[in-house]
Amino acid sequence: MALKMAVWIQAQQLQGDALHQMQSLYGQHFPIEVRHYLSQWIEGQLWDAIDLENPQEEFKAKRLLDSLIQELQNKAEHQVGEDGFLLKIKLGHYATQLKSTYDRCPLELVRCIKHILYTEQRLVREATNSSSPVGGMMDSMSQKYQQINQAFEELRLLTQDTENDLRKLQHNQEYFIIQYQESLRIQAQLSSLATLPIADRQLREPALLNKRATVEAWLTREANTLQKYRLDLAEKHQKTLQLLRKQQTIILDDELIQWKRRQQLAGNGGPPEGGLDILQSWCEKLAETIWQNRQQIRRAEHLRQQLPIPGPIEELLNELSSTITDIISALVTSTFIIEKQPPQVLKTQTKFAATVRLLVGGKLNVHMNPPQVKATIISEQQAKALLKNENTRNDSSGEILNNNCVMEYHQTTGTLSAHFRNMSLKRIKRSDRRGAESVTEEKFTILFESQFSVGGNELVFQVKTLSLPVVVIVHGSQDNNATATVLWDNAFAEPGRVPFLVPDKVVWPQLCDAINMKYKAEVQSNRGLSEENLVFLAQKAFSSSSNNPDDYRNMTMTWSQFNRESLPGRNFTFWQWFDGVMELTKKHLKPHWNDGAILGFVNKQQAQDMLMSKPNGTFLLRFSDSEIGGITIAWVAENPNKAGERMVWNLMPYTTKDFSIRSLADRISDLNHLLFLYPDRPKDEVFSKYYTPPLSKAVDGYVKPQIKQVVPEFTTATPDPASGNPTYMGSRRLPSPRQSSSHLRHIPTYE
């Protein structure tokens, strides 16, 4: 707990802008005093274990809310003394306040605290990165963030400068208009002299003429000055917009695109794409700066219309207005993103979810008139047409139920998002397939679209965003082939591609990275595929016998080799075999893979060569070459038909069906002729912690049966209930089999 406590302790050491950011996390929705006095309890709860998108998790959130209130009340009760009395009242008030705020929406409390903890950890991490040896990547990231923040500071100063200039211009123009009115008044006075007697006119006219000349000279000079002010201001706005474009390009075309790429790789089992809080804060700063400059440009245009002075300023202001509108349009349309992607293998008639988010929604007050988002499934061809701005109105390739959702604003986190929780693909309309393409190679996408206005309907935006490609299936048996299509697309898609083009072939090391990422994620293991494992896979993929990894570095694998053409002599593809291994390991072999007990990626000949140099009873576990999702035991023992000769035996492969009856560890325990796991580890040392405990004593006179595995050629002694002497089951000999089958027998257990 000391490590977690350090977050709050370090958060209190933050300075400057970081401290201000941390303090701004708190308010009436969650007082900072609650964070301080319950820091240990707060950091000790499993907030991340609650899925905010699942309404059924509300009871967990309610339990945490009740616990939080109870902790606050306990803390209040233990306060003593004069200072303690005030704190007791304050903490009691906070307990009542939090209950009132979150009792009907406890998931919002979880959302709020997750946001607080995540932001604190980020601020602490950023503050300590410069002094901690976390590697070049973090240093470069910190440097990049620093450059972005410096650019924002420059933009802030430029915007403040133009604001000051605009006020000065407005003040000077107002004074100019007053003087202009004065010149009109003088002119009117001069005109009225015509009605006066000539003596009076001659007496008053010279002074008025002199005054008019002075005012007109001033007006001419001041008009030139005002024009120069206007041009200078426009040039400063041009500079600001140039920097804005550059900053927006870095954030949208670099940082946001990288986040989307991480999201795509996360679909293959890569590390999580990370939160959007930093990106949202940058996009909000962009929105704020753009909007301030847009308002300034509009005010400058209003001043020009109020006092037209001939010159190039009208054209300049029109250009600035057009540019700033383009910039804000690009920001709004690019920040309408999919925070949580729909499943990429999508089964019809099955519920699925997705979340879309507008990163600048809160800052532009879009939530004041909450927009509705619609989801539609479209084909690859329809997606291409959409990106070319061709008319695809009302085109779809299927029907999605519950496909409309209103965007909601979350006050505590400042996020505007739409959570589609109960969508279901009712039907799909497939297009004509090309050549050998199967239904599990056909890609669709979910189109999310909405419309909203900003600035009191000044600007209306129609926004669209496409999900990652999805493959639609109607039966679970299609899942593995659909997953292959998704894996290849996620791994090898180029940024900015035409939907949904991918290379037809990739170099072997690229594919190794992709399948290793997928394997670790599926098996939920830090133990990935070793270089030896990858060489084995290369041998299988390319029908090669070379053991040298360098021989495969420049070899390419086509999509057809990956999951269209069967492996030589088999009725399954490379991917189907590999996927079967993953599924088996994930469901039944995970602890043994993590323990290093399964070599797995070894062929029959390699197993024989490895075992023949070891003592009898040494065994290893390898994945079956001939069966999808199978694992076999190979062991070295005497040849029963030739004294003094040893041979390697291979057990018929086990599959998921076998392990649903009896686990691998128990099966190994049953076979007494298996003594040492390769190279020399006693089997009980490796597997005993996974053995099923002995059955309890008989109840009501009934004897419980127990399933045991036997290999007839290698029988083990079991007690004879009548004589107490051992008997042997199935001790017949077969003529030197290399592959043996095992049987499960019910053996009565006597207490």
Explain what the structure shows:
Helix content is 50%, strand content 16%. The chain has 751 residues and is α+β, with helices and mostly antiparallel strands. The longest helix has 69 residues. α5 packs antiparallel against α6, α8 packs antiparallel against α9 and α9 runs antiparallel to α10. The strands form seven sheets. Strands 18-17-14-15-16-22 form a six-stranded mixed beta sheet. Strands 1, 3, 5, 7 and 8 form a five-stranded antiparallel beta sheet that branches.
Topology record:
Layout: H1 2-11, H2 16-23, H3 32-37, H4 39-43, H5 58-77, H6 81-102, H7 106-129, H8 136-192, H9 198-266, H10 277-306, H11 313-334, E1 336-340, E2 345-347, E3 351-358, E4 372-379, H12 380-387, E5 398-401, E6 404-406, E7 408-410, E8 415-428, E9 444-454, E10 459-466, E11 471-473, H13 479-492, E12 505-507, H14 508-523, H15 531-542, E13 556-558, H16 559-563, H17 574-594, H18 604-611, E14 618-623, E15 631-638, E16 646-651, H19 656-659, H20 664-670, E17 676-677, E18 681-682, H21 683-687, E19 705-710, E20 718-719, E21 726-727, E22 739-740, E23 743-748
Parallel strand pairs: 2-11, 14-17, 16-22
Antiparallel strand pairs: 1-3, 3-8, 4-6, 4-9, 5-8, 7-8, 9-10, 12-13, 14-15, 15-16, 17-18, 19-23, 20-21
Helix pairs in contact: 1-7, 2-7, 5-6, 5-7, 8-9, 8-10, 9-10, 9-11, 10-11, 13-14
